[in-house]
TrEMBL record:
Transmembrane segments: none annotated. Pfam families: Cob_adeno_trans. The lineage of its organism: Bacteria, Pseudomonadati, Pseudomonadota, Alphaproteobacteria, Rhodobacterales. GO terms for molecular function: ATP binding; corrinoid adenosyltransferase activity. It comes from Puniceibacterium sediminis. Pathway: Cofactor biosynthesis; adenosylcobalamin biosynthesis; adenosylcobalamin from cob(II)yrinate a,c-diamide: step 2/7. Residues 7-173 form the Cobalamin adenosyltransferase-like domain. PANTHER family: CORRINOID ADENOSYLTRANSFERASE, CORRINOID ADENOSYLTRANSFERASE MMAB. This is Corrinoid adenosyltransferase. One of its GO terms (cellular component) is cytoplasm.
Length: 190
Protein backbone atom coordinates (compact mmCIF):
# COMPACT_ATOMS: atom_id res chain seq x y z
CA UNK A 1 0.00 0.00 0.00
CA UNK A 2 1.22 3.50 -0.81
CA UNK A 3 1.18 6.13 1.93
CA UNK A 4 1.90 9.72 0.93
CA UNK A 5 1.83 11.89 4.01
CA UNK A 6 4.65 14.18 2.96
CA UNK A 7 4.82 15.30 -0.66
CA UNK A 8 8.26 16.86 -0.76
CA UNK A 9 11.29 14.99 0.54
CA UNK A 10 14.13 17.20 -0.73
CA UNK A 11 15.99 14.01 -1.74
CA UNK A 12 15.85 15.02 -5.40
CA UNK A 13 17.30 18.47 -4.94
CA UNK A 14 20.68 17.27 -6.21
CA UNK A 15 19.26 16.09 -9.56
CA UNK A 16 18.81 12.44 -8.65
CA UNK A 17 15.75 10.32 -7.92
CA UNK A 18 15.09 6.88 -6.46
CA UNK A 19 13.95 3.98 -8.60
CA UNK A 20 11.53 1.34 -7.38
CA UNK A 21 14.39 -0.83 -6.14
CA UNK A 22 15.91 2.03 -4.12
CA UNK A 23 18.78 2.73 -6.54
CA UNK A 24 19.46 6.41 -7.15
CA UNK A 25 19.84 7.67 -10.71
CA UNK A 26 20.05 11.01 -12.48
CA UNK A 27 16.66 12.52 -13.20
CA UNK A 28 17.64 12.70 -16.87
CA UNK A 29 18.39 8.96 -17.11
CA UNK A 30 16.65 7.09 -19.91
CA UNK A 31 14.67 5.00 -17.40
CA UNK A 32 13.28 8.11 -15.71
CA UNK A 33 12.58 9.65 -19.12
CA UNK A 34 10.66 6.51 -20.13
CA UNK A 35 8.42 6.31 -17.08
CA UNK A 36 8.12 10.08 -16.89
CA UNK A 37 6.74 10.12 -20.43
CA UNK A 38 4.15 7.49 -19.49
CA UNK A 39 3.13 9.76 -16.62
CA UNK A 40 2.79 12.68 -19.06
CA UNK A 41 0.65 10.46 -21.27
CA UNK A 42 -1.54 9.56 -18.31
CA UNK A 43 -2.22 13.25 -17.65
CA UNK A 44 -3.29 13.78 -21.26
CA UNK A 45 -5.54 10.73 -21.07
CA UNK A 46 -7.22 12.48 -18.13
CA UNK A 47 -7.91 15.46 -20.39
CA UNK A 48 -9.31 13.20 -23.11
CA UNK A 49 -11.67 11.65 -20.57
CA UNK A 50 -13.22 15.08 -19.95
CA UNK A 51 -14.50 15.04 -23.54
CA UNK A 52 -15.05 11.33 -24.17
CA UNK A 53 -18.43 9.61 -24.19
CA UNK A 54 -19.19 7.50 -21.12
CA UNK A 55 -18.18 4.10 -22.53
CA UNK A 56 -14.90 5.46 -23.89
CA UNK A 57 -14.21 7.31 -20.65
CA UNK A 58 -14.53 3.98 -18.80
CA UNK A 59 -12.03 2.41 -21.21
CA UNK A 60 -9.69 5.37 -20.74
CA UNK A 61 -9.92 4.90 -16.96
CA UNK A 62 -8.62 1.34 -17.42
CA UNK A 63 -5.81 2.69 -19.59
CA UNK A 64 -4.89 5.24 -16.92
CA UNK A 65 -4.59 2.44 -14.38
CA UNK A 66 -2.50 0.42 -16.86
CA UNK A 67 -0.22 3.42 -17.32
CA UNK A 68 0.44 3.51 -13.57
CA UNK A 69 1.21 -0.22 -13.77
CA UNK A 70 3.56 0.54 -16.65
CA UNK A 71 5.29 3.28 -14.65
CA UNK A 72 5.71 0.87 -11.73
CA UNK A 73 7.18 -1.70 -14.09
CA UNK A 74 9.58 0.76 -15.70
CA UNK A 75 10.77 2.33 -12.44
CA UNK A 76 12.01 -1.03 -11.19
CA UNK A 77 14.97 -2.29 -13.21
CA UNK A 78 16.55 -5.69 -12.91
CA UNK A 79 13.64 -8.03 -13.56
CA UNK A 80 15.93 -10.93 -12.63
CA UNK A 81 15.90 -9.79 -8.98
CA UNK A 82 12.09 -9.52 -8.70
CA UNK A 83 11.93 -12.67 -6.58
CA UNK A 84 14.28 -11.09 -4.05
CA UNK A 85 12.16 -7.95 -3.58
CA UNK A 86 10.22 -9.27 -0.59
CA UNK A 87 6.90 -8.20 -2.16
CA UNK A 88 5.09 -8.87 -5.43
CA UNK A 89 6.70 -6.69 -8.10
CA UNK A 90 4.17 -5.17 -10.48
CA UNK A 91 4.93 -5.97 -14.12
CA UNK A 92 2.89 -5.47 -17.29
CA UNK A 93 1.35 -8.69 -18.61
CA UNK A 94 0.08 -9.73 -22.03
CA UNK A 95 -3.59 -9.76 -20.98
CA UNK A 96 -3.47 -5.95 -20.71
CA UNK A 97 -2.45 -5.75 -24.37
CA UNK A 98 -5.02 -8.43 -25.27
CA UNK A 99 -7.77 -6.21 -23.82
CA UNK A 100 -6.60 -3.29 -25.96
CA UNK A 101 -6.68 -5.49 -29.05
CA UNK A 102 -10.25 -6.61 -28.35
CA UNK A 103 -11.32 -2.99 -27.87
CA UNK A 104 -9.52 -1.89 -31.05
CA UNK A 105 -11.24 -4.63 -33.02
CA UNK A 106 -14.66 -3.67 -31.62
CA UNK A 107 -14.17 0.02 -32.39
CA UNK A 108 -12.68 -0.63 -35.81
CA UNK A 109 -15.69 -2.75 -36.79
CA UNK A 110 -17.80 0.43 -36.51
CA UNK A 111 -15.58 2.41 -38.92
CA UNK A 112 -15.33 2.54 -42.68
CA UNK A 113 -11.81 1.94 -44.01
CA UNK A 114 -9.65 5.01 -44.48
CA UNK A 115 -8.93 6.20 -48.01
CA UNK A 116 -6.72 9.07 -46.86
CA UNK A 117 -4.52 10.02 -43.96
CA UNK A 118 -6.37 12.08 -41.38
CA UNK A 119 -5.31 15.19 -39.54
CA UNK A 120 -5.30 15.21 -35.72
CA UNK A 121 -8.44 17.34 -35.47
CA UNK A 122 -12.19 17.21 -35.29
CA UNK A 123 -13.97 16.98 -31.96
CA UNK A 124 -12.21 17.95 -28.71
CA UNK A 125 -12.13 14.28 -27.66
CA UNK A 126 -10.58 13.28 -30.98
CA UNK A 127 -7.93 16.00 -30.79
CA UNK A 128 -6.92 14.93 -27.27
CA UNK A 129 -6.88 11.26 -28.31
CA UNK A 130 -4.55 12.14 -31.19
CA UNK A 131 -2.30 13.91 -28.68
CA UNK A 132 -2.42 10.75 -26.55
CA UNK A 133 -1.41 8.76 -29.63
CA UNK A 134 1.65 10.90 -30.32
CA UNK A 135 2.81 10.91 -26.70
CA UNK A 136 2.27 7.13 -26.53
CA UNK A 137 4.56 6.80 -29.57
CA UNK A 138 7.18 9.00 -27.88
CA UNK A 139 6.94 6.90 -24.70
CA UNK A 140 7.35 3.78 -26.80
CA UNK A 141 10.47 5.22 -28.48
CA UNK A 142 11.95 6.00 -25.05
CA UNK A 143 11.18 2.52 -23.71
CA UNK A 144 12.64 0.88 -26.83
CA UNK A 145 15.77 3.02 -26.46
CA UNK A 146 15.99 2.05 -22.78
CA UNK A 147 15.75 -1.60 -23.81
CA UNK A 148 18.97 -1.19 -25.82
CA UNK A 149 20.76 -0.23 -22.59
CA UNK A 150 19.01 -2.12 -19.81
CA UNK A 151 16.55 -4.92 -19.20
CA UNK A 152 12.93 -3.98 -20.03
CA UNK A 153 9.80 -6.11 -19.80
CA UNK A 154 8.82 -6.95 -23.39
CA UNK A 155 5.13 -6.81 -22.38
CA UNK A 156 5.63 -3.10 -21.61
CA UNK A 157 6.88 -2.38 -25.13
CA UNK A 158 4.07 -4.40 -26.68
CA UNK A 159 1.47 -2.56 -24.58
CA UNK A 160 2.70 0.88 -25.64
CA UNK A 161 2.80 -0.15 -29.29
CA UNK A 162 -0.80 -1.33 -29.18
CA UNK A 163 -1.90 1.63 -27.06
CA UNK A 164 -1.04 4.17 -29.76
CA UNK A 165 -3.15 2.11 -32.18
CA UNK A 166 -6.00 2.18 -29.65
CA UNK A 167 -5.81 5.97 -29.45
CA UNK A 168 -5.86 6.30 -33.24
CA UNK A 169 -8.99 4.19 -33.63
CA UNK A 170 -10.64 5.84 -30.60
CA UNK A 171 -9.96 9.27 -32.12
CA UNK A 172 -11.87 8.20 -35.22
CA UNK A 173 -14.75 6.92 -33.07
CA UNK A 174 -14.80 10.29 -31.27
CA UNK A 175 -15.15 11.97 -34.68
CA UNK A 176 -18.67 10.65 -35.22
CA UNK A 177 -17.35 7.17 -35.99
CA UNK A 178 -15.03 8.57 -38.64
CA UNK A 179 -17.63 10.64 -40.45
CA UNK A 180 -16.15 13.86 -39.03
CA UNK A 181 -12.51 12.90 -39.60
CA UNK A 182 -10.50 15.75 -41.09
CA UNK A 183 -8.78 14.38 -44.17
CA UNK A 184 -5.30 15.34 -45.28
CA UNK A 185 -5.27 16.91 -48.74
CA UNK A 186 -1.73 16.47 -50.09
CA UNK A 187 -0.32 19.71 -51.52
CA UNK A 188 -3.56 21.61 -50.84
CA UNK A 189 -1.77 24.86 -50.01
CA UNK A 190 0.71 25.02 -52.88
Amino acid sequence: MVVLNKIYTKTGDDGETALGNGARVAKHSMRVTAYGTTDELNAIVGLARLHAPEEMSAQLALIQNDLFDLGADLCRPDMESDSEAGYPVLRMIDSQTDRLEREIDAMNARLTPLRSFILPAGSPASAYLHQCRTVARRAERHVVELATMESVNTAAVKYLNRLSDWFFVAARIANDEGRADVLWVPGANR
